[in-house]
Every structure is written in structure tokens, then in C-alpha cells.
Amino acid sequence: MNPKKDIETPEEEIGEEEVDEKDETDEEEEKTMKSLEKSINKKVQEIIDATKEGKKFTKEVPILETSVMNPDLLLRKKAPFVKLSKQMEDFIVDLKSLAKGGIPRSMIKALSEGDDTAGGFLVPEEFNAEVIRYSSEAAIVRPRARIIPMTRDIVNFPKLDQSSDQFGGVELNWIEEGALKAESQPKFGKITLKAKKLIGLCPVSDELLEDAAVNVANFLVALFGEALAYEEDKQFLIGTGMGKPLGITVGSCNVVNRNTTDAIEYVDLEKMMTALPAWADTGAIWLTTKGGQEKLLNIKSTTGFPLLLPGFSLGAGVPNSMLGYPLVLTDKLPAVGVKGDINLVNFSWYWIGDRGPLAVTSSIHDRFRYDETTFRFVKRVDGQPANCKPFVVLDVPK
Which of 176, 293, 310, 328 is the most buried (most CB within 10 A)? Predict the structure, then answer.
């Protein structure tokens, strides 16, 4: 008998048991992480699908707070949210924890049962209530214009004066050898963007803020964001430039007089197409109202075919078109017979100066006596045509 061997044998057996237990633990952790990843992927896909379809993606529960989307479409690409709800913050923390190889704290409980609604994985409840209303008209100018971020209130841009000459006064002459050369000097102008302030105010009773089924504060942020976007778009079209942006119907130097009062005729459209410079042709669109569209539907080409081609007749997703240009409808233009009721424009030549995102503040002091909270929304922006010729506007008869 070897005593030493008898003593070492149990130790070796114990070591093997520890190794086996360690392997089992690693396998369990690996299964847990795979289950965790599968659960997260499933929930992320549910959120994406629900957002696209506008549906709720989890069970009905009372909303304590929700995330606030950035109402500024330009800045939303870089900063989607103005404010994150507590649930959304936990959701992001969980994802970051998973990315680092850890187990999110909100998933530890009930993970083994496979039930992430019983205190497990937290999914933001962002869409469990809504206010019934019709959607506002989508912006027309901003998505097509050139956006210039403004770091100060006034920004100046030099430009070549092409009002009377394509090359701003540069003269070219063919001369004989030894002849006197003609003088040539281009003319320059200036574009000045000065941030104008647009303000919205809304008092809300404290009872409504406390008892509403939806988060009224966040709802108002989204609603005022749409309202301010609608108003700025309107001023980009018809603004006077006095304390507000300069609209294309006012700032255009390319005006065509119509043939008949209170009408839009084929001869008017021909003159507008001729007036649009060739270099502004690509990207140009017709812009009119529903009333203008009614007049256009009655116009036929010289061969007797309807001038306006409805997009649905050409295929899904195809816009209305007329004489080779897309037709866009808006209710932000004047009635038929007034200057600017129909326009042929290229908005890539419209410049918008953006002095920052929509600023939202609230105060209980302004309407304290009435037990109300006042919300204030401020947007600072300016806009004007960088060149007036790509904006052909139909005016009244001479």
C-alpha cells in the first residue's frame, strides 16, 4: 500500500469535480447570454416594427413619462431625442451593458422563466395612448433648400450679381493683334441672413397635466414643433422679409403676368417654362393650391390630352406631374387669381439660416393665479432666395 497515493487520489477527484462544475457554470453563462441576446434582438425588432406601423408593441400600462423626439427634422438626424424617458435610458444602459459583455441589471430577474414583462427586460412604453387629430402638411421648402447653420445672429455671404448678366458683368471681346483690350470687372452683391425669432405660447391647466392619459407636456412639444415648422414653411413661400423670412413669391425677380384674370391658362404655363433658366431646370417643381389644381385639370394640351397627369395613373409612389415637372400641392399659397397662386421653382437656390433647434421652456409663474403652466417654444431662423431667377411666379395681368 502506498499511503501517499491513497492521500492524493481524493484530491485529484475533488479537482476534477471543480473543473466539471466550472465547465457547467461557463455553459450556463453562455446559455444565459445567448438567451439575453435573443431577447434583446426580439424587443429591438418589435420597437422598430411598431414605430414604422404606428402601433403599440407592449401591454397597456400607464405612462409616467415618455421620450421627446426632436421636432427639428434637420437636427433629428444627428440628435433624435430632445429628452429621454427613464425607461428609454434604462433600455440604452442595458444595451451598453450587453455590448461590454455583462448582464443587464434589469434582466437578471425572471430571466430563467423567459418572461421579460415580469420585472425583466424594460422596454419603453412610448405609444400606449394618443390624441386624435389630423396630421399637418409636410414641409415643402426645408427638405429641398440649402440649410446653413448659423453660429451668430447675422451671417453675410458674397454673391456674384447675375441680375442682368450670367457672368456678373465680365465682358469678352475678340480683338485684333495690338488692339486695345477692353476693361472688364465683375459685379458682386451680398446675401444677409439675420435670425428672426418665432415664438409660441400655450397655457395648460395643472389638472390636465396631472390627470391626462397621455403625457401632455411631451405631446405639446411635438404639436408645437409641427406648428412652428408649418409657419416657417409658409413664410419661406409668402413671407415679406420684414421681421420674418423672405418668401419666394415676394423675393422673386422672375415674374410672369397671366393672360386672364382669376384663371390659369396653357399660355401662362408656357411662358413660365420659358422664363425658367435652363441651369435651374433639374430639380424644378410646380407649386400650387387645390384651387390651382382644379384649374389645371381643365387645361388640355394642343393635341387634346389632359395637361395634368395624376401620379396614381402612372404607378404607385409616382407624383403628379405636368409638362415634365412634378406637381406639389400646398395650402400655404394665395387663392387663384392672386400673385403666386402657381409657381415653377427650384428650391435648391433657397437658403435657410438655422440658429439652432427648437427651444422649449415651461413656467408655473406666468399663470400661477389660474393654476396653469405656460409652455414657451422659440425658433430662430431666416430664409431668402440666393438667386431670384429659379423662382418663376405667376402674377396678375398687366
Answer: 293
